[in-house]
Amino acid sequence: MDNEHFTIISVDVDRDYPIAVAGRMEAKSAVTEDTPAEPAVKATVKGMRILLDLFEKFDIKATLFIEASILPAIKRLDQTIIKRMKKHDLGNHGYAHEDFTGKGTGIVPTKDKISQTLDKAVEIMKQYIGRPTGFRAPYLNFDNNLANIISQKFSYDSSITIKNARTLQIENMQGLTIPEVPLTTGRDKNNKPISTYLWQLLEGNREVEEYLDLLKGQSANPQIPFTVFAIHPWHIAYHIGSRKINDERKISEIKKRLEHFFSRLDNISPISEAIKIQRQYNSKSGKIL
Ligand SMILES: [Zn+2]
Q: pTM for the full model?
């Protein structure tokens, strides 16, 4: 049997639009005020309910990269969400959406600090939802140092964006010893870059068909086994361009757009499952992952 192409739906389950703040490792919500006790998650919870409805409708198993510190806040607002999230592939996305590289905050954490923060994140996830197997770096800020640390703690990474990504290949990243399942970018009909982050779809700047074209191009290449799409739940409830919380009409429009997108996808698989199947192909063809 030939290699098949997997479509992966990944979700960065983080606080309401996390942004980096100079001088501290932890993120801040750009939508509403975090309180000292809890990160802001109202938009995230709203969007997550919609995503879970759609995943259940289309029988999609997604991969969720979770900012661990938001789990208590989510649980307080809606217990059932956590139960529904448990059915998906679980990855970690920091404890408090830390910038582990210092790129956005100016603070470069030590190896020990990163390691302790990730251990704390894994503990909270184990307590609230389950042990994460994968990792995606907050802001996708990734470097050799972080690659090294996460290789000891997780079984795959999905933090790197590679043009026409041949997934599972670890490119230009010393220290990474686990499979990389990267995000990708391509070119649209007008030769403009388009990313598998569904950012522009949710902002209303791109159509579903453009993402399907990107997927078609990827899956036509037998060298490319996966296409990893990514989405933020809060982005269903918050429009970045106008800095406004979406009203119900806007939210239902976005839901329809996502519904249309999901209805057109084939062979959707969570990352851990896709890696397992890909490994079987590779071992049959003598390739080593
Ligand atoms: Zn994030």
A: 0.95
The rounded Å distance from CA 14 to ligand 1 centre is 5
Question: What single DSSP character describes residue 172?
Answer: S
Where b means 16+ CB within 10 Å and e means fewer, 173-197 reads: beebebbbbbbbbbeeeeeeebbbb
Tokens of 17: 């639009």
How far, in Å, is the centroid of ligand 1 from the Cα of 138? 5
Whether the CB-CB separation of 44 and 264 falls below 8 Å is answered with no
User: Is residue 200 helix, strand or coil?
Assistant: helix
Average pLDDT of the chain to the nearest whole number: 92
CA of 212 to the centre of ligand 1 (A): 24
**Which phi and psi angles does 13 have, rounded to 5°?**
-85, 90
All domains of the chain in start order, with CATH: 6-284 (3.20.20.370)
For ligand 1, the distance from its centroid to the CA atom of residue 272, given in whole angstroms, is 20
Distance 101 CA to ligand 1 centre (A): 14
pLDDT digits over 55-90, tens only? 999 999 999 999 999 999 999 999 999 999 999 999
Measured in angstroms, how far is the CA atom of residue 17 from the centroid of ligand 1? 8
Rounded CA-CA distance 15/93 in Å is: 11
Q: What would the pLDDT profile of 14-31 be if each residue is shown by its tens digit? A: 999 999 999 999 999 998
Cross-strand partners of 28: 19
